[in-house]
Amino acid sequence: MDAERWEHIETLFERALDLEPAAREAFLDEACGDDAALRGEVASLLASYTAAQPFFARLADQVEPIVSARLEPPGAPPARIGPYRIDRELGRGGMGTVYHAERDDGQYRQQVAIKLLRREFASDDVVRRFLAERQILASLNHPNIARLLDGGMTETGRPYFVLEYVEGWPILDYCETHRLGLEARLRLFQDVCAAVQYAHQNLIVHRDLKPGNILVADGAETGAPQVKLLDFGIAKLMQPGMDGHLAMTHTDVRPMTPLYASPEQLRGERVTTASDVYQLGVLLYELLTGQRPYARFEPTAYQIERAICEEDPPPPSQAVPPGGARPPWSRRLRGDLDAIVGKAMRKVPDERYESAAALSGDVERYLEQRPVRARRGNVTYRFAKFVRKHRVAVAAAGVIAVLLVTLAVLSVRFALVTARQADLVARERDKAAQMASFLVELFQVSDPNERQGTDVTAEELLLRGASRIETELRDQPETRAMLMNVIGRIYRQLGMYRQSETLLSLALDERRQALGDWHPDVAETQQELGRLRRAQGAYATAESLLTEALAMQRALFGERHVRVAQTLSDLGWVLHNKGEAGRAAALFNEALTMRRELLGPRHEDVAESLSSMAAVRRHQGAYDEAEQYYRQALAMYREVLGPEHLQVARALNDLAAMLQDLGRYDEAETYARASLDLYSKLFGTEHPDVATSLSNLAYVQQNKGDYEAAEQGYREALAMRRRLLGDDHPHVAHSLNNLAAVLQDQGRFEEAEPYAREALALYRKVFGDTHRLVAQALTNLGWMLRNRGALDEARPLFEEVVQIRTALYGGRHPQVAQGRIYLGSLLHRLGRWPAAEAEFQQALSVLADSMYARHPLRAMALSSFGELRTDQGRPEAMEMLQEALEIREAVLPPGHWQTAETRSALGACLMQQGRYEEAEPLLRQAVQILSERRGARHPVTQRALARLAQWDAARPDPGTPSPR
Amino acid sequence: MRVETPEHVTRLLKDVHAGDREAIDRLLPLVYDELRDLARQQRYRWQGKPALNTTALVHEAYLRLAGGAAIDWQNRRHFFRIAVKAMRYILLDYARAMQREKRGGGRVPVDLDEAHLVSEEEADELIALNAALERLEAVHPRQSQIVECRFFGGMTVDETAAVLGISPATVKRGWNVARAWLYREIRQDLTA
Questions:
Q1: Domain A167-375's class?
Q2: Do the beta carbons of residue A233 and residue A265 sit within 8 Å?
Q3: Does the CB of B109 have a partner CB in chain A at under 8 Å?
Q4: CA distance A656 to A672
Q5: What is the ipTM of this complex?
Q6: Per-residue pLDDT, A477
Q7: Domain ranges within chain A, ordered by starting residue
Q8: Which residue, A76, A212, A719, B84, is the most exposed by fewest CB within 10 angstroms?
Q9: Closest residue in A to B95 (Cα–Cα)
Q10: Top-level CATH class of A81-165?
Q11: Predicted confidence (pLDDT) at residue B101 exceeds the cutoff of 60
Q12: How high does pLDDT run on average in chain B?
């Protein structure tokens, strides 16, 4: 059906609709003529129209309940609600008012509490859901839970709950007035746990456990205190409608009071039975100490919320109540009870007791003076705490994931076995058990309670782990290999490559021996080793290891698999490092697509793929696209991993390097600093990534003209890299190269040259002759030679640069343009003007894209070409130099030597046209700045001085001093 | 943590106005996320009207995303068109989740407030509605926009007319015929 026919149908439909149903037939007969299809279509639409209206109304009605109801001021208490006669008001809360009432509809008499909800809860949906859930809640039949008896709607449309009326004290008041001792309090607490456990087994979560919701009555028959929990399930039921207005923040779905809320409730995250366990922990805290755990933060809502999410409360034994009078048992809290409360109140739900019953069980153990579980080694907790304490181990966070995932996978494997596989399973189970106990012991020692005073460092821990693998797991090669793989990986992430290499090579050998060459675990270790080789700069080995791992994984897991994506990405990086941008981009793109499909649009791995795309696009010169990718990656990492994560530091660094390429130095410096700060925070002062970050910041400083800071940064980075990576690492060459460049920027050519030559030799050794870094080193050395007057020696170097870059990137790349500008400028000085002109022309044609309109590189081309044009006596020189100056003044920081260089050139050009007065200030400023920045001996300063001398000699009236 | 700033959203809206298709693609997920969050929070306030009264929600999402930035009516119109589309996807997601639940999984102890919001039949109907709307969109995009505004956006005829820049009479006519057409399609789908 096309749009025109649709229009026609629509018109006929509408006109027929306006007619009496009886008249429609005749109308259609006439309007449609012999177009039977048309008639059929309109008639069928008319037929469905009648049913369509109620259908859409019902669908809409039932589908998405949204609109906020209006707040209504509380009125006078109603005389009756349903069959209940209201007696008196018992209290008021956030949700509504509670009345004491009596059922007196002639059936039977019963005292009840009625909770009448506020107006804003009175939406159809709440009521409908309430009616649906009422049955579940009413089925909670436990001596410690106040029964939900009934519920419904008042005549004015307000929902109400009818609850068992409990005469009693809130639990804390009861304990105080009855002067209960420690044991009695703990027994009461166990009753509360039992009620909560019962509800959890019936799939109901309380979410609002607090002393005010827990009443204690003196038992009628036994005289023993009787605990009754109120409002079970109601908080959860009512929660989402709590706020009466459309709020502006995301913090709407939250408990009535933050005082007893769990961290996940405050964060608006999923609330589970673990939240009730947390609230039980808070209750226990208050029962034991007479105050709430975060009492000192209570004055402001914000502070307490922050504290609940971020701070550990003082252990109950250390809590000092407001009056300063500690309960008589406060000394007995130390140790077991501190630990029990602590475990119940862990920030991370999974680290708490797994159930209310487990919590109660530990209290029981305490009462029976048996060892409590809370003090036994909780590996996950200790490991997590260790990681938190040692920021260096952010890298190791990956390891936790690996270990936990491995354990999880193993347990899943158990579940999936057939009898035939029993043998295999037994081995897997042994492996898991060995690994678990290995870790337990490893981390037990890092528990500060067991090892007073100093904390273990990550290195110590790893060393201990590695040596124990040797001694204790001698007979379990598979477990050994698994752990060596994991620890080898941490070593790499910590930059300890030699240690990593030892373990990974061993792991690979052992796995091959045990499993054969063709096995997922072998692929895993090969991949790990490939990553290490890349980090070490051995790209050819890295490539072959990863290619093999990739082939194996594709065969074992299929073409589309997260591990395949990961290896594609790893391999892409190796190719990128080797300078094979095209192949790298293809692999990165494949990985990105695969990850988006497999993992969804927002995932750590997707962010990794985005930043790898950015890196390769940047090196291909597609800066706009690269910037987009980098910013997306940065935002995604922050979103997914939080603001203080290694990946965020890397992303900041990458973005800085990119902005630096674009000449946006101030932005670049900001990001570079942020990155370095974060790296140092995560790794301390000594780490390969810290060196890189340091070096990148220095590079920005160098480009801004802050040479001293830059030189210092480069020297620090060089020393650190030699220490950490050895003398033959490409990163050492980077540092040598950088240092040479910044020395020569300061006119210290003799000092610079040996560094430049060493860097070039090292690059050639590592990468071969056709590599972007070889070109970079050639450029630096070329300038050094040129600046000390060895122009003929410099020429083949620049020619090689252009040749290498053209081979790598094709002719139309800014890097090629840069090489041509340098070459052109050199040819100009050598007196080979036509050749020079050709180079400049080609460079400018590459830079003609609007993207480069204000790029420092274009300014450089214009400035150098302008000088040549001046010498050639060509009129367009003036315009070129003016534009170059304008760009440099705008883009470079004030007082930059390159700006001064262009001023001097422009001065010369003006002088040539006889405009001496205009030329003078330019020439003088240039000399002043260049002497300061480049030193009097630098060729560029010499040239500026020569021009000023020329001006002095040639000005029309040498007798009159020119105005300053 | 959302990092998109109001400025960013404002710029995207301007780009949408300038006819940038990509900007719509970038904006839609933002709006979608915002609305889904809001919808999750506000799900329980439904009053029961013949169409979804989600206009308030859309306004709210708009205020949140645009922050204090001044946006002209032109951009606001674009925003609303995108928002109602986002609303449609939210419901669709929800319905799909319902279907998944139907196929697999039992009850979990924590989802009292997620259960029973939409019956399985309604979920099927919503999914069929979406499929039919896609077909309608192919033939007559404006009709489909009218349905999105009226049904998913809960807008009145006049509001819809203003947002789409057409006359109220056209909206009314389109709404009638589209409902009839969609109903027929949905019935065919569900009985097939």
A1: mainly alpha
A2: no
A3: yes
A4: 5
A5: 0.75
A6: 72
A7: 3-63, 81-165, 167-375, 377-516
A8: A76
A9: A63
A10: alpha beta
A11: no
A12: 65
